[in-house]
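Tokens as discussed.
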């Protein structure tokens, strides 16, 4: 996968969880979700983004919007179910008139050093 304008990215860790409403509101279901990051990744909260695929045949993705995050040690958000395991976290996909859209959540970095530090912490799981 190539993330447009971002040479450094890594996947979410397996021990990440999320909170969701009972009923998703209209629009992006992801905007109503809150992800619970393991405490070891607290410095990277601002780097977690929803990423969507650009139209076309190439596997090029672009950042969509920043993920709402808390730490696992923070109090749970009120009015939301969870924590739930991240994979899989969608109950329905977003569709255009002609096709389904694919979305991912990735840590995105502007420099290699942060990428390498986060990747090491993600792999420690």
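Sequence:
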């Amino acid at each position: 996968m190539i993330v447009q304008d971002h040479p450094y990215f890594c996947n979410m860790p397996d021990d990440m969880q999320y909170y969701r409403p009972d009923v998703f509101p209209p629009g992006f279901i992801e905007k109503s979700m809150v992800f619970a990051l393991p405490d070891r990744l607290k410095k990277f909260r601002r780097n977690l983004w929803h990423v969507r695929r650009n139209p076309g045949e190439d596997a090029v993705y672009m950042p969509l919007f920043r993920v709402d995050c808390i730490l696992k040690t923070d109090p749970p958000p009120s009015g939301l179910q969870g924590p739930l395991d991240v994979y899989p976290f969608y109950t329905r996909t977003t569709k255009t008139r002609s096709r389904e859209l694919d979305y991912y959540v990735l840590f995105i970095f502007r420099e290699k050093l942060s990428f390498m530090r986060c990747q090491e912490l993600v792999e420690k799981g």
